[in-house]
Amino acid sequence: MCNALWQENTVEQMLAELPNLPNEFLCYAEGKPAGLVSLTLRHDYVEGTETSPVGYLEAIYVKPEFRGQGIARKLVEFCKQWSADQGCTEFASDCELHNEASRLFHNAVGFTEANRIICFTMKL
Fold it and tell me: From CA 62, how far away is CA 35, in angstroms rounded?
């Protein structure tokens, strides 16, 4: 599922990153892995928040054959509870400006848009 979510990475690259990955949790349906969430606690500033740490939804993925069954919503509820159990009073996420499906999903599960930004880099 990680490779389906982060298609730009090879399986070898993902395996090399395993020690650095945030908390990842699987959801099962019909006895099969159906969804995945990746969570972190962010101690740096998180756009639109007032506290620290903040529970942060880094990624969420539901296999196509399991979509439309409420699995993603249940995964977000799990994430909110996990964050609260870590002492957080806020939960956040993000998506790229062009990812309309992700924006709609975030709105549907209760997130409120905090800001829109475009990031810039420069080689030195």
Answer: 4
Coil vs helix vs strand at 60:
strand
Q: Structure tokens of 85?
A: 């159990």
In the block, tokens 């949790």 appear at 25
User: Residue 60 in contact with residue 36, Cβ under 8 Å?
Assistant: yes
Is the pTM higher than 0.85?
Answer: no
The residues near 34 (Cβ < 8 Å, ≥ 6 apart) are 27, 28, 62, 63, 66, 71
Q: Are 95 and 116 in contact (CB under 8 A)?
A: no
State percent of the chain over pLDDT 70.
Answer: 82
- Per-residue pLDDT averaged across 6-31, rounded? 70
Length, in residues, of the chain? 124
Rounded Cα–Cα distance for residues 8 and 16 (Å): 14
Cβ count within 10 A of residue 57? 23
